[in-house]
């Protein structure tokens, strides 16, 4: 960090220009987008061929008394907060 400060404004400007030129030379956008497209296609192909590790939970239609109580308390706090002028 100290080196950057010691370079001064002109030195930092030159360093930034050199970095930009290096990026533009070595990572042209027309090539990078093709690489990303290939990567996405590979990832999608792997996902479609791999077995899913996602498990699903079937929810019951009626919430438990604990959930109903918690939901009721949250609603009461929200009403109290709104009554106090908080949104």
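^ Assign residues to that structure.
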């Amino acid at each position: 960090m100290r080196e950057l400060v010691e370079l001064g404004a002109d030195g930092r400007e030159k360093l930034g220009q050199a970095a930009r030129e290096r990026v533009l030379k070595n990572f042209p956008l027309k090539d990078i987008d093709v690489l990303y497209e290939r990567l996405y296609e590979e990832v999608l192909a792997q996902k479609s061929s791999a077995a899913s590790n996602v498990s699903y939970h079937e929810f019951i239609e009626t919430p438990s008394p604990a959930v109903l109580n918690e939901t009721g308390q949250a609603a009461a706090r929200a009403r109290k907060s709104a009554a106090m002028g908080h949104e």
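The chain is about 75% helix and 0% strand.
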